[in-house]
Specification:
- The protein is an all-alpha fold and 200 residues long.
- 73% of the residues lie in helices and 0% in strands.
- The longest helix is centred in the N-terminal third of the chain and has 20 residues.
């Protein structure tokens, strides 16, 4: 996987596919080892994710998705290694790449249920690309919907972060982003009714 893509792209793809097979055949049961191994491969994996070769990019994204599914909350230490790359990929005009990246982001949100992803989504809510902003807004919404309301631990940081997301999304030029922002606001009113007036 550390080889140069120009001459060895098929070897790189096979290496990633072998890792996916390893994860699906019990490799993720050895959590400490798999986390260390993937961490050491994070740079070539990120290069593969943004590769112009659809097969390499697709395999790398599938690997991240498989890891999040197999590891669940234990995937959290890997989140910071890949989430920015995946969100950035959502800015591409090629719908094949953006669809894969979006599905992977949502898999990570669903499988890990880690609040660590929220700052990345909040930052992307003001991205210059409307497609990235939409994924960010829908990602925050998916995170909030993945819990029963009482299960979300509301901290001052989370309240401020949600407020920033809503200020950005509710004024967005994209109707779809505004729609997602409005849905976030409805949940926000349930979670933090005492802060609504100040936010408005």
């Amino acid at each position: 996987m550390s080889l140069q893509e120009t001459k060895s792209w098929d070897i790189i793809e096979k290496g990633i596919v072998q890792l996916i097979q390893c994860c699906n055949n019990g490799g993720c049961d050895f959590t400490t080892d798999i986390l260390a191994g993937i961490h050491s491969l994070s740079k070539p994996l990120n290069r593969a994710i943004i590769s112009e070769r659809s097969s390499i990019s697709g395999a790398a994204i599938e690997l991240v998705t498989t890891l999040s599914q197999r590891l669940g909350p234990s995937f959290e230490p890997l989140l910071s290694l890949f989430i920015s790359t995946l969100l950035g990929l959502c800015a591409r005009t090629n719908k094949v790449f953006t669809k894969r990246a979006k599905e992977c982001v949502f898999a990570v949100i669903r499988d890990t249920q880690s609040p660590s992803i929220l700052p990345y989504l909040a930052e992307s809510a003001s991205h210059k690309s409307a497609s990235v902003r939409l994924v960010a807004a829908e990602g925050v919404l998916a995170y909030l919907n993945s819990f029963k309301t009482p299960a979300i631990k509301i901290t001052t940081h989370l309240a401020r972060l949600l407020g920033d997301v809503m200020k950005s999304t509710l004024r967005d030029v994209s109707a779809d982003v505004r729609k997602a922002g409005a849905k976030i606001f409805e949940i926000y009113k349930t979670l933090l009714p005492h802060r609504v007036e100040r936010l408005v």
